[in-house]
Amino acid sequence: MPHFMFKLIAPRTTFAMDMNEEEKKLMQQHAIFWNDLLANGTALIYGPVLDPKGAYGLAIIEAAGESDAQAICTKDPTIQAKLHTYELHPMHVLTGQQIL
C-alpha cells in the first residue's frame, strides 16, 4: 500500500509556545485523531518536529492512494477548523531490511 508524508503547518512559528485555550482544545482533538490512526495502522508514526525555525507536525501514513490520503488529512480537527494547513507528499518507505 502507498505511503505519504503529512506535514502539519502551524499558523505561526511561536504556536507551540503560545497557544490560546481554543487552540489547546483543538490540539487535544488532533492528538486523539492521530492516536486513533496510529492504533488502526493508518499512521505508522507521527509527532512534532522541533525545528528551531518553527515546530511542525509530521506523520507517515498508509493509504490506498493520494485521494484517500487527502481524505484522511482533511479529517484532522485542526485542518477542519482552519487552524493549520498541511502538505501531503508521496513517499517511498524503506525499512532496515530493504536496499535502495
Automatic annotation (TrEMBL):
What Pfam families does this protein map onto? YCII
The protein's matches in InterPro entries, at most eight in alphabetical order, are given as:
Dimeric_a/b-barrel, YCII
Q: What is this protein called?
A: YCII-related domain-containing protein
Q: Which family does it belong to?
A: Belongs to the YciI family.
Organism field:
Ilyomonas limi
UniProt domain YCII-related: residue ranges: 17-89
